[in-house]
Amino acid sequence: MGDPAENGAAYSEAGADELVFLDITATLENRKTLIDAVKRTVDNISVPLTVGGGIASVQHIENLMDVGVSKVSINTAAVKNADLVTEAVKEFGSDKITIAIDTRTSTEVPSGFEVMVSGGTKPTGIDAVEWARKVEDLGAGAILPTSMDADGTLAGYDIPMTRAIADAVSLPVIASGGAGKLEHLYEAITEAHADAVLVASIAHFGTFTIKQMKEYLKERGIPVRL
Is residue 52 assigned to a domain? Predict the structure, then answer.
């Protein structure tokens, strides 16, 4: 869909509150996030940037912070080594550490939502709601749950999953995966109890502008920055 730095600059200019840069194949390809692309993005935007994908050490987080990243999003490495969350929070502060939780519907875990790792390709047998509670206890500052069932479908966020996690923790929860209509953004906040919404396809394909999204929410009583 184009160059991330150029897209980031356009969204920043258009009024996005924050940008999220997810290098979704970094873990699968056993490599770190593309630092050069991240730096070019940071240099072209005026809003906070969260970066995720392939982050597996405190040193890697420090490298990203050094080029101006506001927050990092950790998924697979946190599941494999929960101590990384504790160490990262101690080193950088809770507000810098977001835990991404990729999920899928599963009858194998109590909540019905299982944690997936490696870019959403590998099931872990871990209950997503219990994992959310644990990372809150470890000091994480926010949770970014993405439904692998809904992601890319444009059919709406996974409301039950997002709500289950949002209601289980007191941290900010960012709904992710599946937005296709403006109504979906509103539902994520009012029905799924999310604190924020992440969008990708509907912005990248030009379906809606940031302004349209914000005005739609504001007209329905959701506080937004215009």
Answer: yes
Question: What's the domain count of the chain?
Answer: 1
In a domain, residue 95? The reply is: yes
C-alpha span between 85 and 75 (Å, rounded)? 10
Q: Which two tokens stand for residue 41?
A: 């993005």
pLDDT, residue 2, reads 86
Identify any residues that bridge with 103 across adjacent strands, giving them in sequence order. Answer: 115, 147
What per-residue confidence (pLDDT) applies to 189? 98
The ranges of the chain with pLDDT < 50 are none
Q: In the prediction, which pLDDT does 30 show?
A: 80
- The whole model's pTM is what? 0.94
DSSP characters for 29-75? TT----HHHHHHHHHT-SS-EEEESS--SHHHHHHHHHTT-SEEEE-
Evaluate whether residue 61 is within a structural domain.
yes
Q: What is the CATH number of the domain that holds 33?
A: 3.20.20.70
Residue 79 structural domain:
4-219
Q: Please report the pLDDT score of residue 162 as a whole number.
A: 98
